[in-house]
Amino acid sequence: MWQNFYMIGRDKNRTLWRVLKIDRLEPSELIVLEDSTTYSESECYDLLRRIHEGNKSTGGLKFVTICYGIVGFIKFLGPHYMLLITKRRKIGAICGHTVYSITKSEMIPIPNSTVQSNMTNSKNENRYKKLLCTVDLTRDFFFSYSYHVMHSLQKNLSCNETGQVHYESMFVWNEFLTRGIRNNLKNTLWTVALVYGFFKQVKLSVSGKEFKLALIARRSRHYAGTRYLKRGVNEKGRVANDVETEQIMFEDVPEEQPVQISSVVQNRGSIPLFWSQETSRLNIKPDIILSRKDQNFEATKLHFENLVKRYGSPIIVLNLIKSREKKPRETILRSEFANAIRFINKSLPEENRLKFLHWDLHKHSRKATNVLALLGRVASYALNLTGIFYCQVMPSSSSKGLLNWSCVEEHDGDYSLENPSSENGNVNKLDSEIAKAECDANQNQSIKVPMFQSGVLRTNCIDCLDRTNVAQYAYGLVALGHQLHALGYMESSSIDLDNPLAEDLMRIYETMGDTLALQYGGSAAHNKIFSERRGQWKAATQSQEFFRTLQRYYSNAYMDAEKQDAINVFLGHFQPQQGKPALWELDSDQHCNVGKRGPDVVENARSLIKRSLSDGNLRCENESPVAANVGYSKPLSGKEGGVSNGLSDSNPEISTCESDMSYSRYTPSMPCRKLFKDVEEYRCVESNHICYDEHGDACSSSNFFDMDWPSTSGNSCEDLCDRSSAGLSSENLGNDVKVETTTSASDSGSSLKGRSQTGSSDDLASGFPVRFVQWVMSGEMLFH
């Protein structure tokens, strides 16, 4: 009888070896034991030889598989299963830290076949296994062994968090699957943290200088699901289709040279109200149902408090939904969203009010160039308020390594809209750190003063897919100009829409939009504006849009229910129990209880929803609900490319979820001081895991700006540019943007306070209406 699985983990240099043992005689409980001894290669092979010799009578050790990390463990009605990454593909690298996607995975039952319960091969058990396998790990999941892909670059450089706290991030999708082994071992050496969304890295050039650009989209695991089954907000303030997008660019230079790096973060998410749409096989556009159960907009307020906690202040909301309709649909939400912001802003001090922009993109989409130009101007103002992240890092071999500064102090208090970022403590600390950096810069002119992002632009339409992606591209293009200017690649901080860089970036954002739309909506994104911008034949564009509409309709009507079930199982929102209704026997999870933690499944509901607190990506918090935080300076299983090999002591049957193709990406674990680590010293943390079977066969007052306000009649694109009576002429606006975006890195990043260092209020007032200036500078209401 084969009693154990043995997993052997090693580092990249084959100098550190560890052993993990998984009990196979326990039919229902998961028992995982880690040998605390660190072995050399010869010692580890000697240990395995002795285990093999001692169990020859029952078959000895049997090689199972090579793996590159444990995704987690899951139990349905019968035994536990182990999910392993068995093939991977490099999809990029951030400052020497490789990022991988999964190209093949396996699901292996843990108990020996002789002790498996009768439920192992039951009809419901097999259906749950099949359901889980529909979550394709080879599409859009990504990870890294040495870089925390679940966090933004700014947070990685600002916080010294280690170990399990990273798995509590809202962007780690296998938090539930790894919870058991992490709590058991009190470390994360053997697991990898998976991020779901999008990752693409390319090499671009400007003025003969090459640089690398990475676009990362991280999808939240909270309130996750499909288009019509997850809408709006839940009681905890989590919104559907919540995606953080980060644009990172850095110099393409040899590793021994100083590296300049910059990032900017933006956010998309469903309108944070209680609303829904019932899936219909007869109606492509179901009615929008608005619930008014939250008269005080408590959930909406929780959502924006969470944004402040994650990104700081200000929060700028760009609402792209329609302003006029023959039959009210989107306009219902537009009005209620405005009411919610008004209500919330009444209780906030002027400096912390939400900045809310209404702009009907659909109405202005007749000319792609005008739409992108106007959105670019909005992006310029948003960037002026939030700033970007930029720093220069000396070679990792330097005695100092990273610059000796911290972006944001950890904060023990509560975050709220009224007290968004502990300004006194964090900013005072930041000021002193920047002063030190400036002093260092004066002594060494090659070191530039760092800049930081505080606040975020949050964009939404109805689905937060098609129109939102266009707006995010416009923001990304303006941000790229600021980033290139900060790195010294461009004298100006603006990039013309006809610049080849604009076309390159458009294709990347278009690919991201298609990926995110397939995940949430079931089809690629509607890219009419992008197609028109490229000069694509109008008939071809219309045909493509029609096909995608039909594809999305079919997916929503016939496939989304099962897809939602699979997501709920994977995330642990529903945990099967014997004697309880099966997942497919329950009503829609639109009506299930939200926010509970516990082992019991709620009767007559689709799932037990487990919502954990999310941490931020720009701010640092001490309030992670993790039970243990144990880390190793040189972890075996996963730092920089871990390989896992497996030997097992039995020959159980295998259920596999695999594919040879990958379109996706994923995440890691590392102390911040190792972000730009010395390659020779630290990359030894790559680990190989070998799984052995002891003797078996192989295991098979609001702050509004309505962008329609300059034109009270037609609200056309031309009106928005030409209405001189409103004081917003294209000439004035263009000139002002130019003034604001040509600041140097040293001028525009020295403080988180008041992002208006690029131009005085007098400069602004000379070219804009007083009400618009008040909106930009202090959050007055501007809404028509």
TrEMBL record:
PROSITE patterns assigned: SAC
Record membrane topology: Peripheral membrane protein
Span list, region Disordered: 741-762
Entry's localization field: Vacuole membrane
Reactions it catalyzes: a 1,2-diacyl-sn-glycero-3-phospho-(1D-myo-inositol-3,5-bisphosphate) + H2O = a 1,2-diacyl-sn-glycero-3-phospho-(1D-myo-inositol-3-phosphate) + phosphate
Entry keywords, A to Z: Hydrolase, Membrane, Transmembrane, Transmembrane helix, Vacuole
TM stretches of this protein: 63-84
Pfam families assigned to the protein according to its UniProt record, in alphabetical order: Syja_N
Domain SAC span(s) in chain numbering: 132-522
InterPro entries the record matches: Fig4-like, SAC_dom
Subunit comment: Component of the PI(3,5)P2 regulatory complex at least composed of ATG18, SAC/FIG4, FAB1 and VAC14.
Name by which UniProt lists this protein: SAC domain-containing protein
